[in-house]
Input
Amino acid sequence: MSPKAAVAQSSVVAREAAHFGELAADWWNPHGSSAMLHRLNPVRLGFVRAAIDSHWGGDGLGFTPLEGKTVLDVGCGAGLLAEPLARLGGRVTGVDAAPENIGAASAHAAQSGLSIEYLAGGVEAVAGRQFDLVTSLEVIEHVANPAAFAHALTQAVAPGGLLIVSTPNRTALSRLAMISVGEGIGLIPRGTHGWDKFLTPDELATHLQAGGMTVSPPTGLAFSATHGFKLSDDVSLDYFLTATRD
Output
């Protein structure tokens, strides 16, 4: 089956959507079940902003580098990334497999005075549409068919556009840190990850290249007890990939 045909069936894994849907009401609580995402978000936003400026020639100083650009955030949860992207000037669409997350995201955006289009479903919910910027952070490890999902992400990128993906690497360190320790002591909700579904940078890059993208070398996301999350040359825990369509 081709990647296009596979994703048309559905990228959504029902038990994964249900798991994250159960967390929806607590998503915006920085001390709740999504506390790790809140700690991670500033580093994610820093990387995304730098990638935007690099791709479109920004100077890093402007408040709205996405002005006039369309943005898609796939696996948006309750909007932790979608809202900052809207504040950067983007016309943002957020897609998530859990309807509960979409409800929480829509309510929070309304309270924040932000106009964001939120859609419940998998990446196929925007089939046929293209966007200047597509993001999907910590999502591909939860989908039914990673190759098909990656292909759908690439097809959502408009000519001249930018794709940013992040995901855990499949290493002994990620198993220890995210599952044995993270889920074991409650830093991450139990059952969030399946280590065998993690992708290496080479595997993910191959999927994106198959969709016609030019892929840049990975940037690692590391964690230290003294500095918390930080960007790193070490990709053994988690990493970002950026890809462009000419």
